[in-house]
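Example for tutorial group B:
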């Protein structure tokens, strides 16, 4: 296989005159100052020997490090997953009947594990023979043509087909069958999309500011950086095996807003805009993650990179993680476990030696994100920085859409905007670049009765994962239940400010319940009659923005049928809600 290289276009950088030394700046992503910091862990030299090596163009675990590796690592060693794409193995696999595929461990592992490198997730438990396909959509930016194509894919699957907006500004489409995959992949390429390297031990969708380039208050347009990262990660959609055999998944984001719409504290790598010696660049946060057994906020790496080094430092961090990360217990394979073992300075040294010049500057104290900033609501109509234009934020209830919905949204983007749509981490959609003269007509569109720019206050912050309708790991149903329960709660209390409620079907917490004001994590429990029923562990106190904080368990194993009075009580006691009976009496 030919050696791997990519040529990148240089991104447009912010005007350096905006960032003079006299600019008022806030501190954020710099390391905290301590009186007596603990010494770094002692790490033996042999521990820093890379555990992987390149062989025939792909990266594999060395023989001497294979003892105690987890089953997923063994699947990767048995057959390189990227060959299904880079050597066109998917063409042959798609021709084999699924019943025949199940008769061989090798091909069964292909459809259950290796196809995740192509963004395909077999729904063996709940939709046998059907797949969810996850895309790569840097910064959540998509086009009307892309949206229509995805609609055409799911439409053919009838009731089995639908699409979801994810908490990483991304599309997931459902109902896909294996024989259709080669044609779908070709169709994605024709409209400028890819699903490559979007699952399993790969880099996930690069998140950015959903208002990039249109926000009058933005710090920097994140789109050039998220695009460059995605191009690097996927090898310009041709495949990049250099970073496709990580110990575990890895999430990046580039921050461009004071609002921190990008949720940097829960990403493995977050680029925080900062000035150093008059140069624009980014301080780095590392290690934020959620898992079933542990959740941690990202911490400062004490590193700053100029804007031109966004990709090189990403590559260096990924290679350090790839080379040295744990590959045993899957619950201990995320990057923060490696940072714990090496210490921040030790990990930083490993990153530095993998930089092109083996140099990594210390963090800048001139962080551009203002800490005292009230997070703005992007739902509804708002003026853009471009005179005479506005954007509209539409609420998509728990992120679920059908084929006809996608066609309608694409039509709105064409008729009123510039043919562009943007997905948000809260599972909503923004249509930018609308001439102000068209706003009145847009607001009369029938589809806005379903996807409202001004939803009920409790619906605004409602997020839900796929749930057990489709996901085999989910313990409870989430999407329909979250809507039903929220509607009932709204009938009982009145609120003056949004409260973010997140529902996740299992401890993997894809819906990020720990960042919610109130979170619900699916479990099984017993009701008052001692019968096993669907329930939820309830989390409280998550915060986003500069004052980010992960919520903690408030009450465990609450039967879902008993959640409404508990939520009402929490809203009254903690969020200023007023019971509607009392509200009517006072009126």
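The residue assignment follows.
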């Amino acid at each position: 296989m030919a050696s791997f290289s990519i040529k990148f276009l240089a991104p447009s950088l912010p005007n350096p005159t905006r960032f003079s030394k006299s600019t008022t700046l806030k501190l954020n992503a710099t390391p905290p100052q301590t009186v007596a910091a603990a010494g770094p862990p002692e790490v033996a030299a042999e521990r820093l020997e890379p555990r992987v090596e390149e062989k025939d163009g792909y990266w594999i675990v060395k023989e001497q490090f294979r003892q105690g590796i987890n089953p997923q690592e063994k699947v990767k060693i048995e057959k390189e997953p990227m060959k299904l794409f880079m050597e066109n193995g998917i063409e042959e696999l798609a021709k084999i009947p699924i019943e025949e595929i199940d008769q061989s461990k090798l091909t069964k592992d292909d459809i259950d594990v290796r196809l995740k490198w192509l963004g395909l997730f077999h729904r063996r438990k709940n939709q046998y023979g059907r797949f969810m396909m996850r895309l790569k959509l840097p910064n959540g930016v998509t086009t009307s043509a892309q949206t229509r194509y995805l609609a055409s894919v799911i439409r053919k699957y009838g009731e089995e087909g639908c699409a979801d907006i994810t908490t990483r500004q991304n599309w997931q489409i459902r109902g896909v069958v294996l024989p259709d995959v080669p044609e779908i992949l070709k169709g994605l390429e024709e409209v400028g999309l890819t699903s490559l390297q979007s699952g399993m031990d790969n880099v996930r969708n690069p998140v950015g500011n959903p208002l990039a380039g249109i926000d009058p208050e933005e710090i920097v347009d994140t789109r050039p950086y998220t695009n460059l990262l995605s191009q690097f990660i996927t090898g310009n959609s041709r495949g990049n095996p250099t970073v496709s055999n990580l110990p575990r998944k890895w999430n990046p984001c580039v921050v461009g807003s004071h609002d921190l719409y990008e949720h940097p504290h829960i990403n493995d790598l977050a680029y925080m805009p900062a000035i150093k010696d008059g140069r624009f660049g980014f301080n780095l946060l590392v290690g934020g993650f959620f898992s079933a057994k542990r959740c941690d906020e990202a911490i400062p790496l004490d590193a700053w990179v100029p804007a031109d080094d966004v990709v090189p430092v990403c590559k260096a961090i990924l290679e350090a993680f790839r080379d040295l990360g744990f590959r045993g217990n899957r619950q201990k394979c995320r990057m923060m476990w490696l940072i714990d073992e090496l210490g921040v300075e030790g990990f930083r040294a490993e990153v530095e030696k993998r930089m092109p010049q083996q140099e990594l500057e210390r963090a800048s104290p001139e962080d551009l994100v203002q800490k005292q900033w009230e997070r703005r609501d992007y739902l509804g109509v708002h003026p853009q920085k471009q005179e005479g234009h506005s954007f509209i934020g539409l609420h998509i209830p728990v992120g679920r859409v059908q084929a006809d919905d996608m066609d309608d949204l694409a039509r709105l983007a064409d008729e009123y905007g510039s043919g562009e749509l943007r997905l948000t981490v809260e599972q909503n959609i923004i249509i930018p670049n609308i001439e102000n003269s068209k706003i009145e007509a847009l607001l009369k569109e029938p589809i806005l009765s379903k996807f409202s720019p001004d939803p009920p206050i409790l619906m605004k912050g409602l997020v839900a994962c796929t749930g057990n309708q489709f996901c085999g790991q989910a313990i409870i149903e989430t999407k329909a239940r979250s809507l039903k329960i929220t509607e009932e709660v709204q009938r009982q209390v009145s609120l003056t400010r949004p409260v973010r409620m997140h529902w996740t079907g299992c401890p993997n917490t894809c819906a990020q319940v720990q960042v919610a004001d109130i979170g619900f994590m699916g479990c099984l429990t017993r009701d008052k009659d001692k019968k096993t029923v669907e329930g939820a562990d309830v989390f409280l106190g998550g915060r986003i923005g500069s004052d980010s904080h992960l919520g903690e368990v408030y009450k465990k194993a609450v039967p879902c049928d008993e959640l409404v009075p508990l939520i009402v009580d929490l809203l009254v006691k903690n969020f200023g809600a007023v019971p509607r009976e009392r509200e009517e009496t006072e009126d």
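The first strand starts at residue 52 and ends at 55. Compare this with the pattern of hydrophobic and polar residues in the output above.
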